[in-house]
Amino acid sequence: MHEFNYHKAGSVADAAAMLSKHPEARPLAGGQTLIAAMKLRLASPSDLVDLSGVKELSAIRVDGGGVTIGAMATHAAVATSKDVMKAIPALARLAGSIGDRMVRNMGTLGGSVANNDPAADYPAAVVGLGATIQTNKRKIGAEEFFKGMFETALQAGEIITSISFPVPKRAGYMKFKNPASRYAIVGVFVAETAGGTRVAVTGAGPGVFRVTEMEKALASKFSADAVAKIKVAAAGLNSDMHASAEYRAHLVTVMAKRAVEQALAV
After folding, report:
1. d(Cα 70, Cα 121) in Å, to the nearest integer?
2. Domains of the chain, first to last
3. How far is CA 56 from the centre of its chain?
4. What is the reported pLDDT for 253?
5. Which of 50, 120, 199, 233 could form a disulfide linkage to 214, CB 3.0–4.6 angstroms apart?
6. What is the rounded CA–CA span in Å between residue 47 and residue 109?
7. Which of 192, 195, 264, 188 is nearest to 232 (CA)?
8. Is the pTM of this model over 0.85?
9. Span 84-95, average pLDDT
10. What are the angstrom distances between the C-alpha of 73 and each of 66, 107, 110, 216?
11. What is the tens place of the pLDDT at every residue in 48-64?
12. Is residue 266 pLDDT above 90, yes or no?
């Protein structure tokens, strides 16, 4: 690990000022990815700005037909929140499926979304529910936020403060997980929302994506049978030691069916 300076922010404004002062600085949320990358010398920030002291970033609240979750809310907090479980049970189940107990108690919603790992679970929920990312500077829609593998619309010094998820009529999330890391080899989030039916896939490609053919089929008939015969092309999907692109394409259909079944069972 390379040498770095450590700062603990007392507020979002404080953190933003530190990041502005140190161009090579990185904000530190749960540290589940960043610290590991630093140990491997894959990341070498000059400074770390710890957000754990900014208490307002951990709030979870339900208001106006939506659930707003602070960026520093841990996966465990989302998974066990009675408000989340009541309003969007699929989101609570998703959070509860991330990593192991230690990861869930340290990792954060904002850190996961900002990192945009192609196999992360939260991007599927953000896109699947049509969420809005609030930063210290602006609001960013889900469709505009994720740009590619480990790439987002966040600008230098911009900090995610919360994410607002509209409450859907029903939703489900299922994933085929890596048995060691529990990252999604393929994960599918299906939601019937006020703005239409949405199907978001994570793990299969270089970033989260929607399957419009499945969305159209589910808009006509929200049932597992509606997506059972819809195939996703393997071209452009990930292929590695865990699964080929062809197998991932097959899993998208399987996980979509199971996600719909879960949504209907609630």
Report:
1. 17
2. 1-53 (3.30.43.10), 170-265 (3.30.390.50)
3. 20
4. 98
5. 199
6. 22
7. 188
8. yes
9. 97
10. 16, 8, 8, 34
11. 999 999 999 999 999 88
12. no
